[in-house]
Design brief:
By secondary structure, the protein is mostly beta strands. The chain has a 7-stranded mixed β-sheet with strand order 1-2-4-3-7-5-6, covered by helices on one side. β5 and β6 form a beta hairpin. The longest helix is centred in the middle third of the chain and has 14 residues. The protein is globular and about 40 Å long. About 20% of the residues are buried.
Length: about 110
């Protein structure tokens, strides 16, 4: 199970979540993600490369809940995780971050 330990990384200016497996190999690949929510909030995440797009959504939803921010799509609009470069939507929740091309780092945003 991932641990939600602390630790700062990235260029500040928002929440930072470290979601790495306990007892992991230090050399195992990771994904450093910067996600801008449709609300304008920015969240930096450090996740396992084998985590899925669904795991990323779950982490973002937990963060929203803890911070009392409406869940994605609460207003009835369908929200999608996207990257600008390359322009792509990530809709397969079972796809790993690595196979989605989101490693070793990526900047993404949620759009409605």
């Amino acid at each position: 199970a991932p641990s939600a330990g602390g630790g700062a990384f990235g260029a500040g200016g928002g929440a930072e979540l470290v979601l790495l497996d306990k007892g992991r190999e230090a050399s195992a690949p990771t994904a450093r993600l910067q996600v801008k929510l449709e609300t304008g909030h920015r969240i930096a995440l450090l996740m396992e490369a084998h985590a899925t797009v669904g795991d990323l959504w779950e982490a973002l939803e937990k963060w929203r809940s803890r911070n009392r921010i409406a869940r994605a799509g609460a207003d009835g609009r369908k929200c999608v995780l996207r990257t600008a470069f390359p322009p792509k939507a990530y809709t397969d929740l079972t796809q790993t971050l690595e196979s989605a091309g989101l490693t070793p780092s990526a900047t993404a945003f949620i759009s409605a």
